[in-house]
Amino acid sequence: xxxxxxxxxxxPGGATTAxxxxxxxxxxxxxxxxxxxxxxxxxxxxxxxxPILHEIGAFEKIDTYGFVxxxxxxxxxxxxxxxxxxxxxxIGSYTYSYQVDRAIFDSLLLENARELGxxxxxxxxxxxxxxxxxxxxxAKVQIRDSHHNVHANxxxxxxxxxxxISSTFxxxxxxxxxxxxxxxxxxxxxxxxxxxxxxxxxGLSVEDGWMWYIPLRDKVSVGYVTASHNATGHPVSKKTLxxxxxxxxxxxxxxxxxxxxxxxxxxxxxxxxxxxxxMNRFWGPGWMAIGDACGFIDPVLSSxxxxxxxxxxxxxxxxxxxxxxxxxxxPIMMFYEQSFRQLLTQMLDLVKYFYDRNRSVNSYxxxxxxxxxxxxxxxxxxxxxxxxxxxxGNTIFQPFKKTVFKNLQ
Length: 409
What we know:
Layout: E1 2-8, H1 12-23, E2 28-31, H2 50-55, H3 59-65, E3 68-70, E4 72-76, E5 84-87, E6 97-99, H4 102-115, E7 119-121, E8 124-132, E9 135-143, E10 146-157, H5 166-169, E11 172-174, E12 180-188, E13 201-206, E14 209-215, E15 220-227, H6 238-251, H7 253-258, E16 263-264, E17 270-273, E18 277-279, E19 283-284, E20 287-289, E21 295-296, H8 304-324, H9 329-354, H10 361-371, H11 380-388, H12 391-397, H13 400-408
Parallel strand pairs: 1-2, 1-10, 2-7, 4-13, 10-20
Antiparallel strand pairs: 3-6, 4-5, 8-9, 9-10, 11-18, 12-15, 12-16, 12-17, 13-14, 14-15, 18-21, 19-20
Helix pairs in contact: 1-4, 1-8, 8-9, 9-10, 10-11
């Protein structure tokens, strides 16, 4: 089994990478361990993914499915206790993204890659990399009940936080400050904010953390995020986290009103903790990592899927150039890591500043303006929307191939 590129993982990042490569005539295999993509958190999408959806030919599939249109975000955040809004249309780009059921969203993207000619292999599980003289040249893979060697010029780690390739060849560096726990559940019959904010992501600062409220097609997602040491119970158990979640839900007047006629689905509560990290390498000889296999920041600005798809586009572009010009592989890969690490680091800086919930709203805007000072001519408010909408990444991924040539010829 020999391909130009082997991709490990069928989430949005892997599907995006595969689609871009296949559209450019590259032979691609993508292995996914699930026969049908499983539930995943990360429902609120930024408009930064929309031009990528157009690029890979998946926009119509996503747009016509019927996901809730997300036109911005609403916050009760900062020293002002009143709700405030940002709308994507304020920066004159795409006006809406989506609030999605990730299992469906991910499946649509994977099917799009398959239609473009990607060899999608399910169920298939990564076992170990295959190396030759220090270079990754493929992977040992379990396909159903048999083992196979799959060879490729490049292996892309799109395995999410498992980071099956990148954790082998690089180190995970946990953020010393963002040590949080998230607790969330789903409700039927929840209300929405009034128009034109009905599809907005809602983020509410509370005493020991913050809460989210995301309207989905047939339910709402409600979550509570707090510092790990604030979670009740030592050691923290699923039961104490569940009690903490429902206590916070009842205490907040806005959440309480939105859920006043809602019913919790199966009384099931999900948890995740200590998720903020960055790998110290995003690539090595024969392999590249994307999305969560490079790093994850925080859910507060909903950047996870956007980073996965943006880095997937960048990696695909890098591989296309490297296959055509192997002599400049190293500087191309270095340029990818520099570009994506810059995106992650800038968002991390904004998120850490944003987590000081006692600042004025304008101070958050000015922080964003400071972070993008050399890139665009925007007001402070526009700079915040520019970063918090994912438009920020488009300045890198749209001209990426042209920039690679400019810097390396």
